Amino acid sequence: MAVTSAGILLHRGVEPEVLIAHMGGPFWARKDAGAWSLPKGEFDQAAEPAADAARREFREELGVEPPEPLTELGTWAYASGKRVTVFAADGEGFATDGLVFGEFELEWPPRSGRMQSFPEADRVAWVGLDAAREKLVRGQVPALDALARHLAAGR
Q: pLDDT digit of tens for each residue in the chain (155 aa)?
């Protein structure tokens, strides 16, 4: 069975900007293109609805409640086969100061036997859709097109 994840893509403004997070940890430290993600994480579809998982992951990664309501944009498959369901929320007025990033443990350096904690994200940024296409991991880029269609339909 394919791994599934769910996340929230916050947007703001007439010329939309989206909130994305730079992935934490030593592997991503010196990377920019393809090293950003929307706040998201894995869940068990049999045990938790995707929207609830997206809210939980947003809280775990950023330390705050996501804006409501959520609108489902769709589900896309990564090249690896992993599937991500993305929800949109209006982030106008969402403050990025005071975020508390969740952490994960990793053996670092590799094969050292030492476990270290790293933030799941080390920073967030509001960026335009074109910049987001360059920064996001490839499997999440289709969510930007779905967001653009959703916003255009609402005008």
A: 689 999 999 999 999 999 999 999 999 999 999 999 999 999 999 999 999 999 999 999 999 999 999 999 999 999 899 999 999 999 999 999 989 999 999 999 999 999 999 999 999 999 999 999 999 999 999 999 999 999 999 86
Tally Cβ neighbours within 10 Å of residue 33.
10
Q: Where are the domains of the chain?
A: 4-153
- Cβ 10 vs Cβ 20: under 8 Å: no
- Residue whose C-alpha is closest to residue 2's, from 93, 105, 82, 79: 82
Count of beta carbons in the 10 Å neighbourhood of residue 44: 9
CA distances (Å), origin 26, targets 48, 97, 120: 31, 23, 11
CA distance 124 to 67: 16
CATH fold label, 4-153: Nucleoside Triphosphate Pyrophosphohydrolase (3.90.79)
Do residues 19 and 125 make contact, with C-beta atoms less than 8 angstroms apart?
Answer: yes
Q: In 3-state terms, what secondary structure has residue 73?
A: strand
